[in-house]
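Fill in residues.
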């Protein structure tokens, strides 16, 4: 079900649908491309298509596992900052990064299941946030990075 098929009066279902749409879109940016293509650096930063999916995975783990779940990122084994989260290792592949993304999404779904949007979560280092705020932040980041992925994919396919 697309986010556009959800009744507007059901805010939680609508937010979940938008998040799921963007999660699928960021993964779809890798479809049909080779390992070399998804690692290709086309901008001055270290950003690559595969690195974007790896970063989006990190971002969701920070907001859901750390902020909502209350587990510090050191305990989660996560990069401490966003710049590090884009870096690829030799072991990273479309399959491994996609699997990690799907696992992070499943964990996020489980962590928020049954929590009202007004729930105050306290795992963020700058202070308490409502679950609604977390959803909006995750949506903002997913939309931002989906735009990056669209542009990079277009460049990869043109080159």
């Amino acid at each position: 079900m697309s986010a556009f098929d959800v009744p507007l009066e059901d805010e939680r279902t609508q937010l979940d649908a938008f998040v799921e749409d963007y999660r699928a879109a960021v993964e779809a940016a890798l479809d049909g491309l080779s390992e070399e293509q998804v690692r290709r650096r086309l901008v001055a930063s270290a950003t690559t298509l595969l690195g974007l999916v790896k970063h989006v995975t990190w971002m969701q783990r920070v907001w859901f596992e750390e902020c909502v779940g209350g587990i510090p990122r050191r305990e989660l084994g996560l990069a401490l900052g966003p710049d590090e989260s884009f870096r690829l290792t030799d072991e990273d592949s479309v399959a491994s990064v996609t699997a990690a993304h799907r696992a992070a999404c499943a964990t996020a779904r489980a962590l928020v299941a049954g929590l009202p949007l007004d729930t105050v979560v306290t795992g963020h280092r700058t202070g308490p946030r409502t679950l609604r705020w977390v959803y909006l932040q995750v949506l903002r980041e997913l939309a931002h990075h989906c735009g990056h992925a669209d542009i990079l994919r277009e460049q990869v396919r043109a080159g």
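The radius of gyration is 16 Å.
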